[in-house]
Structure prediction request, 210 residues.
Amino acid sequence: MQIKRFVFNPFQVNTYVLYDETKEAIIIDAAMMTASEQSTFKQFIEENKLKIKGLYNTHGHMDHIAGSAWIKREYAIQPSGHKADDTLIETALSHAAVYGIEMEKPEAVSNYIDENNLLQFGNQRLKIKHIPGHSPGGLAFIHHTQKIAFTGDSLFASSIGRTDFPGGNMSQLISAIQEKLLSLDGEYTIYPGHGHESTIQEEIENNPYL
Prediction:
């Protein structure tokens, strides 16, 4: 499985495209806001002749779903995510306004996913884990064959997600991280929603919040 990372919008969100030899691909967190960002994304998809089969939200905060309506128009793909974050998506425009940001109304989730569902495309299979605490419907996507975890805003390199937003819960987040992410083999690489990659072992040893 190949991984392409884009960094989009003023919040520097990591948008990931995962694909394999079949040319089937999925998107994790469509965060593009501007025409330039949309063009950069589209160029990569076209140059690599990829067929987008799904869009998956790690959670419903506005910076991570800013491009979902554009993805729906451009590729006829509707987002999948956890039902518990529906309210965040519905109120995304008002949250963006707090930061002085104008964005397109994001696309509502049409396919609900939850703990232990499988995310499938091409020859790839990823396990879904519910990691609430940063948001009620936070999700992580685990590729066990390559020992990779896409952790959204739950777990970062040397940090964890904020819990002072509506629906946040620090104890819930710490518990979910310890139970469902730190229980993975230390060699697993984490690909977070912001910032650079890390490993589970590095976070066990060095993350001050854990």
